[in-house]
Each structure stands twice: as structure tokens, then as C-alpha cells.
């Protein structure tokens, strides 16, 4: 009976309390950025020239946020340098060190939990081709569009190569990749989402249409 109670408490902790605690930490990480709210303009200009790109920060530095309109208007997750437990179990979305920074040529690759610890990528399977993934740094918006999804084994790390699936290729495009566990409540495989940069905007010039109900 005692064992059963302990197992039950562990399940409650794993499935409920980790979401509560990590969710609070992730919301605080976004608040701690202290960024000004973007202005609203009638027709923000979507730029397709080379965007500004941040230098890669030190481990545990929160440098950007991710918004995914498909997952709701209130979905905002911090993006923090690193993919260890100190990031993924507390701060939400982690950036794979050595991969491109937002807007950079190559592959801006990130990881997050699909269940527990705030489950930032819980609804990853709902994404459709063309869906926007909106990354914001303090001064710049980067709007990526989903181009493909796939399920791979954990050792297939070529999905986060500068050219996904072609680790020896030289990148020329600006891409983004989301990685998370698959299936739900298992780590046997990985669910992968690939995207390409569609446009970018200075934060000072307004809010992307994708966040204002636009396509």
C-alpha cells in the first residue's frame, strides 16, 4: 500500500507539479527580459534582406522568445542557451550551442519537453506546413514558416545540421528546427519540425502580421 501511494505521488509530481513549477519559471524568464512592448502600426514592413544576427551568448543566457500562433495567442516561451536539464527542466526552450542564432544562415535548432516541465512543445504535432514560428530578440522579429515534419531516432542528429539531413553541406538558407520527444510520454524517438525564414522586422517597426491574426 505504501509503495502504491509513493508511486501515485511520483506520478502527480511528474505530470502536474513539474508543469506548475516550470511554467512559473518560464513566465518569469520572459518577464525578466524587461523588453518594451512593440508598437502597433497599420502596415508593418516585412523585410527579406539579410537580418541582424546576435552573437551566440553564454550558457544559461535567455536571449529570445518563441511565439507560435497555432498554439494560442498567449503562447510565449523563452529561448535560452543550452539544452541540458538546467535549461529544459526549468527555462523552457533550449538553443543547441553551435547552431545558428535567430536569423542566421544555417539552422537555428532548439529543443523542449513535450510533456512535463511546462511542456512547451506539447502541441508540436498540430503544426501544419506554412505555419509561422515567430522568434523575437530584443530588437528584431524573425518569422519562420514550417516546411516539413519528420520522426527520427535519437541518434539522427543530422536533423540539426546547418543543412538538415546533409551534415557535410554548406548552408545558404536561414532555417529553424524544433526537436522534442516522440511519442508522448516516451523518449524512443524524436519529433522534428523544420522551418525557413520568411521575413524579419525591427521591433521598432511594429508587430508581425502573424501575431495579429494575419497569415
Automatic annotation (TrEMBL):
The active site is at 113 (proton donor/acceptor), 181 (acyl-thioester intermediate). InterPro entries: Sortase (IPR005754), Sortase_Class_E (IPR053465), Sortase_dom-sf (IPR023365), Sortase_E (IPR042003). Keywords: Hydrolase. The keyword Endoplasmic reticulum does not apply. GO terms for molecular function: hydrolase activity. This is Class E sortase. It comes from Actinotalea soli. The lineage of its organism: Bacteria, Bacillati, Actinomycetota, Actinomycetes, Micrococcales.
